[in-house]
Amino acid sequence: MPVAASAIYFLNLRGDVLINRLYRDDVGGNMVDAFRLHIMQTKELGTCPVRQIGGCSFFYMRISNVYIVIVVSSNANVACAFKFVVEAVNLFKSYFGGAFDEDAIRNNFVLIYELLDEIMDFGYPQNLSPEILKLYITQEGVRSPFSSKQPTDRPVPNATLQVTGAVGWRREGLVYKKNEVFLDIVESVNLLMSSKGSVLRCDVTGKILMKCFLSGMPDLKLGLNDKIGLEKESEIKARPTKSGKTIELDDVTFHQCVNLTRFNSEKTVSFVPPDGEFELMKYRITEGVNLPFRVLPTIKELGRTRMEVNVKVKSVFGAKMFALGVVIKIPVPKQTAKTSMQVTSGRAKYNASMDCLLWKIRKFPGQTESTLSAEVELISTIAEKKSWTRPPIQMEFQVPMFTASGLRVRFLKVWEKSGYNTVEWVRYITKAGSYEIRC
């Protein structure tokens, strides 16, 4: 069951109603007073985003200096309600030039009421795509003077067909002089490693971002080196597939443009892409992760006032690759008075506000190692010294053309009835998510 919202309210931080819309008559007009009295005035806004008062449920979210509150009187889908709020805010931002706050709402009352009537009908969410709604709600919002976005929307005929058609995320009649597709695979590595180098927890979260500048209504087909897809392909072709390393994708979610029926039957990612930039899919990998860095720390406490810190960092990726913006944060006690450091590459300094040795390496080549050696002097105190908890070492980095999961694009095929030529660009980027090493 979807949301079935009875009412939606937009409130400022004082609790004043900026704008509201009642979709059903099963709640009274004083619902906002109940929210203001039982939630806002009791300062329980940060405890839980879902509250029940009487026979009604309140789902609320704060965006900038505005609270958006959905009131329901039945058992509704909470996740769908919050998804609706996020998509609605993105829609408003697209009309207001990227801003959504109290001033933007006050400057666009008429436009917001018109959009609320379109995106929710009798409490049920409808189409929230900015590309489609702008086809027939052509009024431009009052934009913030600080917004750098300029209106670039082009009026497209036959809006009714676009809204009711199967491909609602792409409009017809698009023409480009040069047809290009840009595909980025961006991964974040989450790691917790012991001081001896053994992996305690590791996973990779990734997403495939696309930017399409294609004419007409193209049909794209993306092939990855995932194990299930390759096995299905070999069954269809009745011959083994030479693919090299394969990986297993977990928790895969797709953009609405992907043909899920074809994916379930053939395990191929087929889709008619939206125009411009969008997120094609997200995934997670927990097995067979290729760690880009190994960190081996050695910290010795010499008495009450001295410490020796030695950290060795080794890059495990290919020798022809390199990492950019490498930052290693090595924790030290709060009572640190003086430090002296030596590094084989980069620069290091003591950061008193963060209680750490901050080691920065602008460019870190693959299959190399760098070391830091430091002597730390601590303030001598008469009081009994508390044991130091030793927070983990943290790393930040970005490695172009490398994927920790091993994911690779085997092919990207573009078919369009006019038969034009297409230029495809593929890029891989691996970043540090939560990359921590115990010391």
Overview of the structural elements:
The model is unreliable at 146-165 and 238-242 (pLDDT under 50). The strands form five sheets. A nine-stranded mixed sheet has the order 11-13-9-8-23-21-16-19-18, with no helix packed on it. Strands 2-1-5-4-3 form a five-stranded antiparallel sheet. Strands 14-15-20-17 form a four-stranded antiparallel sheet, with no helix packed on it. The longest helix has 19 residues, at 78-96. The protein has 439 residues and is α+β, with helices and mostly antiparallel strands. 17% of the residues lie in helices and 41% in strands. It has helices spanning 31-40, 78-96, 102-106, 109-119, 130-136, 159-164, 227-237, 260-266, and strands at residues 7-12, 17-22, 50-53, 56-63, 66-72, 120-121, 124-125, 180-193, 199-213, 219-224, 250-254, 269-271, 276-285, 293-302, 306-315, 322-331, 336-343, 347-351, 356-365, 369-378, 393-400, 409-415, 423-437.
Features:
single chain; 439 residues; alpha+beta; 9-stranded mixed sheet; 5-stranded antiparallel sheet; 8 helices; 23 strands; 17% helix; globular
Task: Provide the low-confidence segments as ranges.
Answer: 146-165, 238-242
Structural class from helices and strands?
Answer: alpha+beta
The value of Rg in angstroms is: 27 Å
Helix content: 10-25%
Helix segment count?
A: 8
Strands of the largest sheet, in order across it?
A: 11-13-9-8-23-21-16-19-18
Distance between the termini: 50 Å
Rounded mean pLDDT is 83
Q: Give the percentage of residues in beta strands.
A: 35-45%
Number of strands: 23
Major sheet: 9 strands, mixed
Outline, from the CA principal axes?
globular
